[in-house]
Amino acid sequence: MQPRTTTPASPELMKAINTLYKESHSAGVPAATLELVHLRASQINGCSVCVDSGARSARKNGETDDRLFAVAAWRETSYFTDAERAALALAEAATRLADRADAVPDEIWDAAAKHYTEPQLGALVLWIATTNFFNRINATTRQMAPQTWG
């Protein structure tokens, strides 16, 4: 499968993307949580570019391989805090909107609200949406993770 070429992003678009990034990372949600949420949504969407870059970024920022390897099975491990689990559940629900009639049920929202303030919840939702935005661009244009070994 070959990547599709696209028109380069304009400077205005890059400013908007940077604003989304800064806003979602400035509300006090732990960076590790944002990295995990990005990785999980990208796994669900099959975005190899974001899975690769997300895992590499998380590792560079101190995340352990054990936790990175277990993100897809976060419910079945003891590696994640209750707050991280609530954020991961929110990421899954908000990424899989069509999978249920009530896309993000109260139980998922309420669990996240126990661990995060209103601004932090807003930042989580914005980061999940931003991740899904990039996943969809990359999937549509068939972007692939770089082929590096070692």
UniProtKB/TrEMBL annotation:
<protein>
    <submittedName>
        <fullName>Carboxymuconolactone decarboxylase family protein</fullName>
    </submittedName>
</protein>
<dbReference type="InterPro" id="IPR003779">
    <property type="entry name" value="CMD-like"/>
</dbReference>
<dbReference type="InterPro" id="IPR029032">
    <property type="entry name" value="AhpD-like"/>
</dbReference>
<dbReference type="Pfam" id="PF02627">
    <property type="entry name" value="CMD"/>
</dbReference>
<dbReference type="GO" id="GO:0051920">
    <property type="term" value="F:peroxiredoxin activity"/>
</dbReference>
<feature type="domain" description="Carboxymuconolactone decarboxylase-like">
    <location>
        <begin position="11"/>
        <end position="93"/>
    </location>
</feature>
<dbReference type="InterPro" id="IPR004675">
    <property type="entry name" value="AhpD_core"/>
</dbReference>
